[in-house]
Design a protein that fits this description.
By secondary structure, the protein is α/β, with parallel strands linked by helices. The protein has eight helices and six strands. The N and C termini lie far apart (35 Å).
């Protein structure tokens, strides 16, 4: 991929532009072009591939929520982990996130849909560690090389920012904790919000209030969840 053609916020591009010249990224581009040529659907759409980076510039980042790979159903994925466009019914994991949000903050959220762009615009970086997926094939791009890129992203955040809250739900997200300096950042872990695991400790983990309490302690504006 050519960094000059990547629509990436300058705050990120300053740290990541070299990645787009590397062999692994060239292979990712080749694979995606092959899929497009063969009319094999993959998500999200190209315009949304780096949406998390563009809605949450590095200099405004306060919180990282780490997902695994995008939703694999039509029109669900739009570049933000766990989020879906307004017109799409929230998937089960997102419903559980909203349930915990309501219980944690002790108030009914006013959410009419599952679009989390309002979080992203406040500094919540909603990063999937794999940025693309083929239609109806979860984890199909897990070995494509995206993890090299997103590990670099996590490392950049760890190095250039202070007092970031990293929210790691599930064992896959938690496997990235070695990239994070827990002396400078807050790491919150819990089981994944999926219906298969949410009852094992996701419910009651209070990530939203813990995040805001930490931000307050560092004189950083809280997130309006």
């Amino acid at each position: 991929m050519d960094a000059s053609t990547i629509q990436l916020h300058p705050s990120w591009l300053n740290h990541l532009k070299d990645e787009f010249q590397k062999d692994y990224m060239m292979l990712i581009k080749k694979k995606l072009l092959e899929l497009k040529k063969n009319k094999i659907s993959f998500y999200p759409a190209g315009k949304d591939l780096f949406k998390a980076f563009n809605l949450t510039p590095l200099d405004q980042l306060k919180v990282v929520i780490l997902g695994q790979d995008p939703y694999h159903g039509p029109n669900q994925a739009h570049g933000l982990c766990f989020s879906v466009p307004e017109s799409i019914k929230p998937p089960p994991s997102l419903i559980n996130i909203f349930k915990e949000l309501t219980d944690d903050l002790g108030m009914k959220t006013k959410r009419a849909n599952g679009n989390l762009e309002s979080w992203a615009r406040q500094g919540v970086f909603l990063l999937n560690t794999t940025l693309t997926v083929e239609k109806s094939k979860p984890l199909s791009h897990q070995k494509l090389g995206w993890d090299i890129f997103t590990d670099k992203v996590i490392s950049v955040i760890n190095e250039v920012k202070d007092h970031v809250v990293f929210i790691l739900w599930g064992s896959f997200a938690q496997s990235k904790r070695d990239l994070i300096d827990s002396n400078r950042h807050l790491i919150l872990t819990a089981p994944h919000p999926s219906p298969l695991s949410a009852h094992r400790g996701f419910f009651g983990s209070k990530p939203f209030s813990k995040t805001n309490a930490f931000l307050v302690s560092k004189q950083i504006d809280i997130i309006q969840w």
